[in-house]
Write a structure and sequence with these properties.
Elements lengths: L3 H15 L3 E4 L3 H12 L4 E4 L15 E2 L10 H10 L7 E3 L5 H13 L2 H28 L12 E5 L2 H16 L5 E3 L1 H7 L9 E5 L3 E2 L2 H14 L3 E3 L4 E7 L2 E7 L2 E4 L2 E4 L5 H8 L6 E11 L8 E3 L4 E6 L2 E10 L8 H14 L14 E7 L6 E4 L6 E5 L5 H16 L18
Parallel strand pairs: 1-2, 1-13, 2-9, 4-17, 5-15, 13-20
Antiparallel strand pairs: 3-8, 5-7, 6-7, 10-11, 11-12, 14-17, 14-18, 15-16, 16-17, 19-20
């Protein structure tokens, strides 16, 4: 006679055999971490991506894990700064003016969100998501010591040269402390102790000891290999053309390589998520924020991960090499390289590090990526409006690497109908529907 326990086990096995795979549309870092946490729960996963998954927005960014970044992109000061930056092709933030109704709508929503009331609402959500992500990265490091991520828990330094930015950064340091984050205000003498090998021209800096950075390419490469070994399937160079729906459920995804039936979909399509949402019949305002980076020989060696605040340039050292990256060019899904934007990053290097031996990179060595930007600077995480089996994880702007583990874990929890690790009301997917 089969025991009740064995009967339930056989029943569960039967359900697993007849279940269709969960499809993750988008193989960036958020998609891969979603696959990682679902795979750990025994869920069959297929990742669909429009590219060959060799290079994307997840592979060449600054790799910063930043619980300190509790202010969304749509902050009050960005309006006045953005207007002044519009007149410089080398500026940190740029919206290319063009006749585009989607861009016009996005800009309107951005301006509407850039106020103190909205920022105060956003801070606790961003902070908790970031702290969860940092904890998950530390767990990941212990669980996968074989992953050579170059993870460095040395904090992030915000270096400034002007009196006006000094005032902003010190005010922000006090705000961060108010929300329970560590923030150390450094004098030029303190900076010299942090960077003993070369001069960093700055009036001062704020150091956030709780931040960290890693090699995003190494992380991405490891996750792809690990997931493939664990049985996750990858369908690359595959364009999503449509969805087959019945009432409030998606039954299948139609691609240029055929139809794939599914029980659940995770929409993690980065800057293309808005277009995919449109196919499904809901609004997900999204613009690609183009950024650039390049590697240099780290000579003389810069030791501290830093943001050069006036120029919004990120500096990520990995021993013998170092990555410089920056700019936010609201460019839709245009992926051409604008050399003036790269020059803006390059010229910042010796403005702050006069002794550093910088060489302008060849075009083939310049990485570019489209960060998926929501109008209010908060990601979209949760169930899609009007859909029982569609989850969304997108719109992380410049913090895709930083927030990916937490987003992936939350999406896995929602998929399994579990309570989420943190409150996610601020990331509601249908807030613009």
């Amino acid at each position: 006679m089969v025991s009740r326990l064995n009967f339930l086990s056989l029943g569960s096995l039967f359900l697993l055999l007849i279940m269709k795979p969960t499809l993750i549309i988008g193989g960036g870092i958020v998609g891969l971490f979603s696959a990682y946490f679902l795979n750990k729960e025994g869920i069959e996963v297929t990742v669909i991506d429009r590219t060959d998954l060799r290079e994307n927005c997840s592979t060449g960014n600054a790799g910063m894990i930043v619980p300190s970044h509790i202010i969304p992109l749509a902050a009050p000061g960005m309006i006045s700064k953005g207007i002044s930056w519009m007149f410089s092709s080398k500026s940190p933030f740029y919206i290319h003016p063009r006749l585009d109704m989607k861009l016009a709508k996005w800009c309107f929503l951005f301006f509407r969100a850039a106020n103190e009331t909205q920022v105060k609402k956003a801070i606790p959500f961003l902070k908790n998501l970031s702290l969860l992500s940092k904890a998950l990265y530390l767990d990941f490091k212990v669980e996968h010591p074989e992953a050579a991520l170059a993870l460095q828990e040395k904090g992030l330094m915000m270096a400034y040269q002007t009196e006006s930015v000094e005032k902003e950064e010190i005010e922000f340091a006090h705000l961060a402390r108010k929300y329970g984050l560590e923030a150390d205000i450094l004098s030029p003498a303190d900076i010299r102790k942090v960077e003993p090998n070369l001069e960093l021209k700055a009036r001062g800096a704020v150091l956030f000891p709780g931040d960290a950075h890693l090699d995003p390419g190494a992380l991405y490469g490891f996750l792809k290999k690990h997931l493939a070994e664990k049985g996750v399937k990858f369908l690359t160079n595959s364009q999503v053309l449509d969805f087959e729906k019945s009432n409030s459920k998606v039954q299948a995804v139609i691609t240029d390589q055929g139809k794939i039936e599914t029980d659940k979909i995770l929409l993690c399509g980065g800057s293309w998520s808005g277009e995919l949402a449109e196919m499904l019949g809901f609004s997900l305002p999204m613009m690609g924020g183009k950024g650039y980076s390049f590697l240099q020989e780290n000579n003389p060696e810069i030791k501290q991960a830093t943001i050069l605040t006036e120029q919004k340039v990120a500096v990520s050292p990995y021993g013998g090499t170092i990555r410089f990256g920056g700019t936010m060019e609201i460019a839709g899904t245009d992926q051409t390289i604008n050399k003036n934007r790269v020059k803006g990053i390059f010229e910042s290097i010796n403005r702050y590090y006069p002794d550093f031996k910088a060489k302008f990179p060849e075009e083939s060595k310049i990485w570019k990526g489209l960060r998926p930007c929501s109008p209010d600077g908060l990601p979209y995480i949760g169930f899609a409006p009007g859909h029982e089996n569609v989850l969304v994880g997108s719109g992380h702007s410049m913090m895709g690497i930083s927030l990916a583990p937490a987003t992936g874990k939350i999406l896995a929890e929602l998929h399994l109908q579990k309570d989420t690790s943190i409150e996610i009301q601020g990331f509601e997917v249908g807030r613009y529907s």
